[in-house]
Amino acid sequence: MGKVIPFSEIEFYLTSIEKSNAPKGTILDTNVLISASYDVRDSHAQITEILDILQYKSYRIFATVNTRSEYLEFQRRLILTESLLDLVDEFSIAKLPKNARARIQTLKGSLKTSVAADSEKDEVFNESQLKKIKREFSAGPHSGQKNWLEICDTFLKGKIANEDQSLMDRGVEYISPNDESQKHLFDASLGWPEAIGICEKTGTAFSDSMILNALKASKLTFIVTLDFDVGYAALSDPNMKDVVVPDRLFKETRHYHFPN
Amino acid sequence: MTKKPLKSWKTLASESKARRKTPLNPEQVEKLNKIFEEIDKKQERADEDSKRKIARQPEV
Fold this sequence. Notes:
The structure holds 2 protein chains of 2 kinds.
Chain A: E1 4-6, H1 10-17, E2 25-28, H2 30-37, H3 44-56, E3 60-63, H4 65-87, H5 98-117, H6 127-136, H7 146-155, H8 159-168, E4 172-174, H9 192-202, H10 206-217, E5 222-224, H11 228-236, E6 242-245, H12 247-253
Parallel strand pairs in A: 1-6, 2-3, 2-5, 3-4, 5-6
Helix pairs in contact in A: 2-3, 2-4, 4-8, 5-6, 9-10, 11-12
Chain B: H1 12-20, H2 26-56
């Protein structure tokens, strides 16, 4: 059974595992990467501190392909949201089309309401809201989406690549048993049946099951997550490894007891 | 070859925010405004056409 380690004990934990022969490395959950890049989140300061400790102690930092895709997806929605909201700002010199302005204003209102009701929600349009806005930039039924392409060219071009590069500048590597330089990090194959098994056992989101599966297949000792479910899944699996979580989540997981 | 030193995680959010908050340059605004004006015109024309079509329909 894996152990759940609170952030406040990370340095003791790292000292304790350094005696083992396990490779010095960890896998990060998507939420960790998002919180590190977005200072609006409550966990931002805590998580950057943990990541700097890992970097200082020369730990390799890995993310799964799924995590990378989820991180870049968040950046896409964040960049588009802020760019579109800037266009409806009263000081903006952009003269938005009437219908698009009205649609963005309405959805801005819904977004503010939902964030006010749930402090954990990011002020970022969801996919359905972005699609509604995109439709307003079509000039008519036969005009296609060329105008939207111009908007993407202005607001997105090069920006998502920059966000991806930013992670690499901090040493994030994408974990893969097929990568020659990482072969020594794995002692089992990384297969779908195992990920499905984790998901079926604990009902954990499939993306989390894939991260846990990568951890299990690797020789790495622990992952860092902000997700209670990942800690729960680790505790419930006798063959799972360790999970490093914020102290608040650590306290929650102490309420759960699983047979060894 | 020397390895590039890794950047601190503490600067990730501020760097990312600075990139997002870079204002559009005048050429970009002008280009967008031209597109927006065109959309407005086409949408107004489409609205008028549909009103005219409705007006032309025989009363039942």
